[in-house]
Amino acid sequence: MQPRVSSFEDVKDSMQARPASQPRASPRLFLKIFLPLVALGIGFSVFGMYVTRLQIGTPGAIFQSCIEEPVGLERWIRPPSDLMHSMSDEELLWRASWVPQIKRFPFKRTPKVAFMFLTRGPLPLSPLWERFFKGHEGRYSIYLHTHPSYKANFTSNSVFHRRQIPSEVSEWGQMSMCDAERRLLANALLDLSNERFILLSESCIPLSNFNITYQYLIRSRHSFVGVLDDPGPYGRGRYNANMIPEVSIDQWRKGSQWFEVNRKLAISIVKDTTYYPKFKKFCRPHCYVDEHYFPTMLTIESPHLLANRSITWVDWSRGGAHPATFGKFDITEAFLKRILGGQNCSYNNQASSLCFLFGRKFAPSSLEPLLQLAPTLLGFG
């Protein structure tokens, strides 16, 4: 015989048939069960708070005290503590284009020079640069754009420690090279104290000590961008008529990739949405866009701010598509004196014999003789 399954009505009837008076749980029994549970919960809470406070005060603990967000003006003027941000290029360029409209700073500002290294990977000449920067903290900042697969391993006491920025692959002669340069400028612009911006490679060396370099750049009324109106096949011959109306052939310029600009021009470069699309679309191989984009754009926009020359020495006398490279046996006292002397140029509209602050291309093997000659010939180390 199957057991009878109770229906909803059966359950309802049984509840209604239950006597009105049911025995209640004893209050004493309630207190015996409930109060110990409350006490146990409070105990765990107090213990947890104690452990948290203890671990916050212990170096290397799991729980770290929260760093308060800077308030007031400090939140706007403090440079980023971590260069490896998560912003896309679009977000970065937008953020870097912010410009204060009141030119007088309401805080003590020491203008800095941003040294922007565009490299494939390691910096073999970094020991020379370490000596160059030593003792001048607060007057410079450093940014490294490397191949995205390269992870620098500089020690914590190095000036290059944690100075890598988020990067993308850049190819010689392609728009990706200009993208890398804009990315460097945009990251450097996030520090309001950066006033001058110099683009360097892993093969560059300083040709003067830091004080001379700093004063030369900070006091200059012009930015050092090589600009040339070349009528030949490697100048105007690379022009594409589709650049009109933004760029006419009369405005087309050629120059060195290794530029130096002030803050005003750096902002002009990162905020550009007028010339960039044209160069990206119509300055294709064999146009070599990195030789034309910035010189042309800046000549159109701010010709009065350009010195029309580079401050990075290079030797093209050997011919070919690339300049000469100098190794260990090239680095002699006579060689460096030849670079440093006998130059004539204009600085702040006055004649000057100091024309180059940096030199390239120097091979890794040149490091040892450079370190030996730097104290007497370059003025540092």
TrEMBL record:
Start and end residues of each stretch annotated as Disordered: 1-20
Location of this chain's protein in the cell: Membrane
Transmembrane segments: 29-51
Entry-linked InterPro entries: BC10-like, Glyco_trans_14
Cellular component, GO annotation: membrane
UniProt topology in membrane: Single-pass type II membrane protein
GO molecular function: glycosyltransferase activity
Keyword Glycosyltransferase: yes
Broad class of the protein's primary localization: membrane
Keywords noted in UniProt: Glycoprotein, Glycosyltransferase, Membrane, Transferase, Transmembrane, Transmembrane helix
Pfam (any one): Branch
Protein's name according to its UniProt entry: Core-2/I-branching beta-1,6-N-acetylglucosaminyltransferase family protein
